[in-house]
Design brief:
Helix content: 55-70%
Radius of gyration: 42 Å
Strand order of the largest sheet: 16-15-17-21-22-23
Strand content: 5-15%
Low-confidence stretches: 1-111, 158-164, 388-412, 460-469, 868-890, 988-1016, 1019-1025
Mean pLDDT: 78
Distance between the termini: 87 Å
Structural class: alpha/beta
Number of helices: 53
Length: 1323
């Protein structure tokens, strides 16, 4: 009933006052008529809604009247809650202190005129609001009623009712009720608080003997309960319970209103149980509900008591696992559904469905779950069919919408809220059915329903930064949690990391909307679980650290004695031991064990075997981890005992539970395997038991589950330990790697195990294993955001995977496959970045929109990959506090995965176009061989099992060249010898001591070296004194390279008829990138014999793909006019040891030689050579020459050129440039081609210049001498500008460098380490 009913009641008063006397006093007739109408409204029964006629005239002939008018109720007390009193007009002129008492004993106060005017004006405004529904009238009513109370308080004093007036509580009751009407219309908490103050004062001043005190307490109780429902303040709830208990004592047992009072108190006690877990409150609430039903068992309006009792029994049945409580709850709620009024049907259906789901969880009866899903759907349909006068049933009670604002918009808002609160329940029920039946249509509907509950059109809505998607701030946290859960379940079977990213995103958003500590605690643990799961897929350390933090926060919210404290302890323990075993610290293991032991000790007896088994399994795993870390067999025995108990407790009852519990026998098997391997006496029984456990685990897990690969891997590992094998273990490896549902990182680990074991036993599946392994490498890189994290991932992998794959293919006689596998596994970082810059001219002619979409997503991915920190847009609130703008979240990993998904979709669409089916796919040998169009490419592959060279030619089959002497270990020793020797020559005193004979080794002080920093272009004045021994050592190394590797290749080139002095390209693998193959020769044994430098012009090729791309771009962008040259020169501070005096001479020679041969020459010198200027000028010049200091950092992407005042331009700065006009770069600085020392990646400054677009790059393999700069630069550019036809072509740069190096070599006093340092990359 809304406030418009005021007019109805006033009319009833008027009617009762004028009706012939039927034996009742006039006032009694008025009260009875009013009460009859109100009771009908409260019970949802028809009532004659009369008009306002006669209401105002009644005031002139009636004393102060008490009107009971209920505001919109959020709880059900069964009593009127408002008392309005009109002041008699005749009172306005009387003394403000005079009083009189009528024959009924009711105090009649003669009010001061000003207070009465304000008060009656407020009531008049209420009448106007009732008639017109204009909020301005309601605002005026509140204002005037408050003014009247303030004036009366001012005139009579503020010390109590005696001074204020005996009926002061009536005024406050009227004002408080009006404030509550406005609160239920506008939902402004200030109104709720103001109403609370007025009603509290009314209750304080209303005499205990006053019969109408019941109304005051009812109003105050409803107000406090509303406040509690919003703020969840236990103190407010305690006050509400006290009010309700007093109200109950004032209500005789024979009155029907007692049942309502019993129900309201029961609801309050149930709320306190939910908040504080006081089991006595729950038991008391159940008894109160039963008593309420017993007051009038046949009353059809007891539907609500039956429903609420069912909810209380549901809670107790879940807590005590008492099926009888759930059965009774279902029966009560079915009866409630049959008798409830249509407006409340939605909530009754929802509660019945919730109870059926709970009973399903205990009995596993699918009929309950199917019926629950159907009931949820029926409830959703019922919401759409509700009339505009429908009711709203909140968490505790129902009231007719006459008591609420009646606008269509607010009716729609009520229906919307019901729908939003119901959809997550349907989503969870669908999830439960999917867990049992595994039907993916349930997953699809679950995600659709979850998105609907968030009012999101689709899951793609959050992908694009331009998506102006807004979420209502009123959407509860349960909807966010439901969507998170949906994506988490889909991940379990899809293995798609993007589903986990979305699960994390929405779980984080649910945290922001939790209202209670318990809700917050549950969400913290859920977020921790999801982060741990993502960590196990990606091994991103930040995820597990954040997971542990979330679990600690959740644990802190649960005090001693909390029934779920054991669960918080278990969750924290699991997170602690989820860290990668290498990074796992002993203290974390010990803390996890302590958590599991404490959780086991405090686990309530009421919990079933599943909880006990889970704790034992987790404790067993933690003990097993500790035993393995310490090598303690005794602790392992305890772990095995715990595993056996866990297996006996955890017997799955449905398919998904079986899948989740497959890890229990799997971990038990691992414990037996470890004991078998490390026990002094190996017991075959351990292997037998382990196989039984693994087979049990395999039976439990479906092939589309993300744990499938892990179980198969465990079974394969156990089988390998048997002799002879009881079954072929490699079939399990193959199935594990092929499982698309399992995480890519896990499948990669399995593939590495597969090829390692296959090579050890010469199993024929090794080559297939390598194919799978190398394809997974690129997929795993997508899991890491920045290029540094990708590099760190590759560093942790075994060395030379691609080299071993090549050797395996060569053993099988598949030479072309060997080249394909080598190319597929090398240069992964550059290759992935290069794909983001793939030429799109041909595609743009066919589908410009698709080309633009691919280009946009590629730029986004490149920015995420290269940037030091992702510049993601934040998930931020808009200016409107009621909405939330969804943009890509702050987690760079999650944004990377979403953008990657968009990029992959574009790639798949492009591949559907005719002629683009191989777009960005692995390049076949038939395409790779085009890189040898201008000369042979010499692939040199070394590994432990065999070493070979492969001479790739453009139009002839590839030629293998066995290199039996080039064992990997031997070549690595050679590389280390060269590194030590160069360190001796270029400033590392410690290395120099290692190279001296034992009798000649001195201290650092004895070996004075003014140039300590490796990588500094040495000035002529600071060059270390050459050591003849060191140069002899370098020649010995070059001779070893000649004999082991280069001489067999040179002989084969001669046999193939490759012309002398023609160009060849080196394609070295593994550690060979650090060795100068181009300069190998018989320097010691046959000094007069030619070296390889004398025979051919060498260039280096990082990958075939880069060469093909450079060749394609160079042909399309060939310039008919002379190039422009950008020269960067930074000699440094003349007062510093690092000053490079020869830079000026080098620049002069460039200027002199380039006159009239270039279209333009632009100089950036010293302070003008800033990183910004260089990046701005590079795109406008085809050639670039940098002469300065260069540094190769141990973290290769932090390598840099040093500029003026120690400023720098880093490798990553250079990578961000895209230079379509670039042709040639000469890097006259130290260590610009030193390269990375891990995996098959070539990460140095020269490679970065190639990536940016330079087709030919000249760099140095180690520090160069300053005085060599002008010499080699002058000879180089003299050759470049001396073509007979006057042309200037960057394709001549390899020959030009070869000529310049030969000139330097012939110069007197130049040692071998100086001229062999210069190398050429590219075309």
């Amino acid at each position: 009933m809304d406030i418009r009913s005021t007019g109805v009641v006033l009319s009833m008063f008027s009617h009762a006052a004028t009706t012939p006397d039927k034996g009742l006093p006039r006032k009694c007739r008025i009260k009875n008529a009013s009460y009859d109408f109100l009771l009908r409204c409260r019970l949802g029964l028809p009532a004659n809604l009369a008009c306002m006629t006669g209401a105002r005239t009644l005031l002139a002939s009636t004393d102060s009247l008490i009107l009971y008018l209920p505001f919109r109720r959020l709880s059900f007390s069964g009593f009127p809650v408002n008392c309005y009193a009109y002041a008699r007009p005749s009172d306005m002129s009387m003394s403000q202190h005079s009083r009189e008492t009528d024959s009924a004993g009711i105090a009649r106060t003669f009010l001061p005129a000003s207070a009465s005017v304000a008060y009656n004006s407020g009531l008049a405004a209420l009448s106007d609001f009732n008639r017109e529904g204009n909020m301005q009238h309601l605002d005026k009513a509140v204002e005037k009623l408050t003014e009247g109370i303030t004036l009366r308080s001012t005139l009579h004093g503020r010390d109590g009712a005696e001074d204020f007036g005996d009926a002061c509580w009536i005024w406050r009751m009227t004002c408080g009720s009006a404030l509550m009407v406005r609160y239920t219309t506008l939902w402004c908490l200030e109104d709720l608080d103001a109403a609370s103050e007025q009603l509290k004062e009314a209750a304080r001043t209303c005499p205990s003997s006053e019969p109408r005190r019941v109304a005051v307490l009812g109003a105050l109780g409803d107000n406090l309960k509303t406040s509690f429902d919003i703020r969840r303040d236990p103190n407010v709830l305690a006050a509400t319970i006290d009010i309700q208990r007093e109200l109950l004592t004032l209500t005789p047992s024979f009155l029907p209103q007692r049942a309502a009072a019993l129900k309201t108190l029961a609801l309050c006690l149930q709320a306190r149980y939910d908040l504080e877990n006081i089991q006595e409150d729950q038991e008391a609430s159940i008894e109160l509900f039963r008593e309420a039903l017993a007051v009038d068992p046949e009353n059809a309006n007891h539907w609500m008591a039956r429903n609420c009792l069912g909810r209380a029994l549901l809670e107790r049945g879940q807590r005590l696992t008492a099926i009888q409580d759930l059965n009774e709850a279902v029966a009560l709620q079915r009866e409630a559904e049959r008798s409830c009024p249509p407006p409340s049907m939605v909530q009754c259906l929802r509660d019945l469905a919730d109870t059926l789901v709970a009973r399903f969880k205990q009995t596993k009866g699918m009929r309950d779950l199917d019926e629950a899903i159907q009931i949820y759907r029926k409830a959703l349909d019922s919401i759409a069919q509700l009339p505009t006068t429908s009711g709203f049933y909140g968490d505790y009670a129902w009231c007719p919408l006459e008591m609420a604002a009646s606008s269509d918009a607010q009716n729609h808002d009520s229906s919307r809220r019901q729908r939003l609160s119901l959809l997550p329940n349907l989503s969870q029920a669908l999830a439960a059915r999917f867990n049992v039946l595994g039907k993916f249509e349930d997953v699809d509907e679950m995600i659709r329903v979850a998105h609907e509950s968030m009012e999101i059109p689709s899951e793609d809505a959050i992908v694009l930064a331009s998506s102006q998607l807004q979420l209502d701030a009123e959407i509860p946290w349960t909807n966010f949690a439901s969507l998170s859960m949906a994506f988490g379940i889909r991940f379990s079977f899809s293995g798609d990391i993007k589903d986990l990213d979305k699960a994390v995103l929405w779980r984080e958003k649910s945290l922001e909307r939790c209202l209670s500590d318990e809700d917050l605690c549950e969400n913290l643990h859920s977020l921790g679980h999801t982060l741990s799961l993502r960590y196990r897929q990606t091994h991103v350390e930040g995820d597990i650290a954040e997971s542990i933090r979330q679990h600690r926060s959740g644990l802190a919210l649960r005090s001693a004695g909390h029934p779920k404290l054991w669960l918080s302890l278990q969750d924290l323990g699991v997170a602690l031991i989820s860290t990668n075993n290498v990074a796992l610290q002993l203290r974390e293991i010990d803390e996890a064990i302590a958590c599991f032991r404490q959780a086991t000790n405090i686990l309530p007896q009421s919990h079933d075997d599943h909880a006990r088994g889970t704790l034992r399994h987790n404790l067993a795993y933690a003990l097993q981890t500790r035993a393995r870390r310490l090598g303690n067999i005794d602790e392992l025995d305890e772990s095995i005992q715990m595993h056996e108990e866990a297996v006996s407790f955890l017997r799955p009852t449905d398919p998904l539970e079986a899948a989740d519990l497959c890890v229990v026998p799997h971990n038990a098997a691992l414990a037996h395997v470890w004991r078998y391997k490390h026990s002094p006496v190996q017991s075959p029984d351990d292997l037998k038991i382990a196989i039984e456990y693994e087979e049990e685990a395999l039976k439990r897990v479906p092939s589309n589950h993300h744990l499938y690969s892990r179980i198969l891997r465990g079974l394969a590992d156990v089988c390998l330990l048997q002799s002879p094998w009881s079954r072929d273990p490699f079939q399990y490896f193959e199935r594990a790697v092929a499982s698309q549902a399992s995480p890519a990182r896990l499948r990669l680990e399995v593939a590495i195990d597969w090829v390692r074991h296959a090579r050890e036993v010469h199993h024929p599946s090794a080559l297939d294993g390598y194919r799978q392994l190398l394809s997974l490498l690129d997929r795993c890189l997508m899991l890491y955001t920045t290029i540094e994290s990708q590099h760190n991932f590759l560093v942790k992998l075994p060395r030379d995977l691609s080299s071993d794959a090549c050797a395996t293919a060569l053993e099988a006689g598949e030479i072309e496959t060997a080249v394909e596998l080598l190319e597929q596994g090398r240069g992964l970082l550059w290759g992935r970045l290069t794909r983001f810059r793939h030429p799109l001219e041909a595609l743009r002619e066919i589908d410009a929109a698709l080309a633009n979409e691919f280009e946009t997503s590629s730029k986004d991915l490149e920015e995420l990959t290269i940037a030091s920190s992702a510049s993601d847009l934040l998930l931020s609130r808009s200016n409107d506090a009621t909405t939330m703008l969804i943009e890509p979240e702050t987690d760079p990993n999650a944004r990377l995965h979403m953008v990657s998904e968009r990029w992959e979709q574009s790639v798949n669409q492009i591949r559907q176009i005719e002629g683009f089916s191989s777009f960005l796919k692995t390049v076949t040998f038939s395409e790779l061989r085009h890189a040898a169009a201008d000369g042979p490419v010499i692939v040199v592959n070394v590994c432990n099992c065999r070493s070979d060279a492969i001479i790739v030619r453009y139009s002839q089959p590839p030629i293998p060249v066995p290199l039996p002497r080039a064992k990997l270990e031997r070549i690595m020793n050679v590389a280390q010898r060269l590194s030590d020797t160069l360190s001796m020559l270029h400033g590392n005193a410690a290395a120099r001591r290692r190279m001296l004979p034992s009798g000649q080794r001195g201290s650092d002080d004895e070996i004075q070296d003014p140039h300590e920093d490796v990588g500094i272009r040495s000035s002529s004045s600071s060059t270390p004194i050459p050591s003849k021994r060191m140069h002899v050592e370098i020649k010995k190394i070059l001779q070893i390279l000649w004999e082991d590797i280069v001489e067999p290749i040179a002989c084969q080139l001669k046999d193939l008829g490759v012309k002398l002095k023609s160009r060849i390209w080196w394609y070295p693998t593994s550690v060979l990138w650090r060795l100068p193959l181009h300069a190998a020769g018989p320097y010691i044994s046959a000094k007069d014999e030619p070296t390889f430098h004398d025979l051919y012009v060498s260039s280096y090729m990082p990958t075939f793909t880069r060469a093909l791309l450079s060749r394609s771009v160079a042909q399309k962008s060939a310039q008919a006019f002379p190039p422009s040259l950008l020269v960067v020169g930074v000699p440094g501070d003349p007062g510093q040891d690092t000053f490079l005096p020869e830079v000026e001479e080098e620049l002069c020679r460039i200027i002199d030689l380039s006159k009239q041969r270039l279209s333009s020459l632009h100089l950036l010198l010293s302070e003008n050579a800033t990183a910004e200027a260089i990046q701005q000028d590079l795109p406008t010049h085809a050639w670039a020459h940098l002469t300065c200091h260069g540094y190769q950092n141990p973290e290769p992407f932090n390598s840099y050129f040093e500029l003026h005042n120690s400023k720098r331009i880093s490798l990553k700065d250079i990578m961000q440039s895209n230079l379509p006009r670039a042709e040639l770069a000469f890097l006259s600085a130290c260590n610009t081609a030193t390269g990375d020392q891990v995996f098959d990646e070539v990460i140095h400054l020269a490679a970065a210049m190639q990536f940016c677009g330079f087709h030919s790059v000249i760099g140095t393999m180690w520090p160069m001498v300053d005085e060599d700069g002008p010499e080699i630069t002058g000879a180089f550019y003299h050759y470049m500008f001396s073509a007979p036809n006057g042309s200037v072509d960057f394709r001549n740069s390899a020959e030009a460098l070869h000529h310049a190096v030969e000139c330097l070599r012939q110069k007197k006093g130049v040692t071998i380490d100086r001229w062999i340092a210069f190398v050429h990359y590219g075309l």
